[in-house]
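Example 4.3 (complexes with small molecules)
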Amino acid sequence: MYDSDKMGFSTNQIHAARPEKVGPGPLATPIYQTSTYIFDSTRQGAARFALEEPGYIYTRLHNPNADEAAARIACLEGGEAGMITASGMGAITATLWTILRSGDHIVSDRTLYGCTYALFTEGLPRFGVEVTFVDFSDVEAVRRAVRPETKVVYCETATNPDLKVVDIAAIAKAVHEAKPDVLYMVDNTFTTPYLVRPLKLGADIVVHSATKYLNGHGDVIAGAIITRQELIDRIIPCGLKYMTGCAAAPFDSFLITRGLKTLDIRMDRHCANAMKVAKFLEGHPAVRHVCYPGLEHHPQHALAARMYEHGGFGGVVSFELDCDRARTAQFVDNLQLCTLAVSLGDAFTLIEHPASMTHNTYTVEELAKIGIGESLLRLSVGLEDPDDIIADLKAGLDKIEEEKQ
Ligand code: LCS
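Answer. The structure with LCS bound is encoded below.
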């Protein structure tokens, strides 16, 4: 009997929650490319719908590939149970549509992925849910924002796009003291369970865009939710089954299970490459500012060094150029190896312009308030040779400096 508690992270990312072996058979779990499942009898079908008997019913609810990926991610996060969704936004909405009702309140960090921000400013208020935005680097301000009607406290472990690191243990303690039944929900996309495990630090729910590092190869859109069994047992029949219908496809779930096997190796390389790139950018005169928790001047460097596991600081580096928006765009357009595309956590190094792309759901004033300028670029450092990534960036940055002479 496999005991994941006795095994290390690397072993678990390959072995945890494998379906039971039935004699000789395929090593990789086959893709169950089916929408529905045959019942032996009407009695069995009714019993499964009534949740009196375990077993598959319909792929919108459960599928062997989705269940395997979910259970493995749950193990890596140190959570009781998990589920896979059709996207990261699906994970967030399926969770919130299950927990919230009109009149409820959320306390959220001010800096979020642009579509999460749109959900909180445009989507949820239409249904009577109010969101208060606070800077989560101020733990006391978060505590003060909690009200009797607060149901959820929400943040990203390291914020998209500027890598502010949130002290998850301190926030968990403060908000649970303020209101014990508040659900502290953390988007762990940027750090993955290899670097940070929010549930171990006191969070109640972890969500992911599995599109990113968990899958790791830029060919899937998916999400994940990891939390207590009791909550998953509410999210599947509500948030997933009829509120969003955002079930993950069997093939996508299979690809996530495949990607997870190399999560630690990829993350080590992403982190090492990102550190080299961040140090290079920090020393270049055409760069005004570098956001990377691994750098000593980063405001939460000491916190990250304490909170992050396995000695890395993540694979995303954001940096502000010392030039205007038009010249920033020209710099990006002239890059040869770094690819202009949104998303992150890919083998390819990807670069994007948050103000006009991932964060265009913020107004110009809101962007200024969270410090996202017109010359800020977000780089998801890939798995290429770091010297090649640096050479590509250097060519463009040197040109900006030459023009200033
Ligand atoms: N949470 C975070 C922190 C994200 O960065 C994203 C997507 C999501 C949730 C939503 O996940 P999805 O539905 O796309 O799987 N972030 C993107 C980004 O920064 N560029 O493109 C997508």
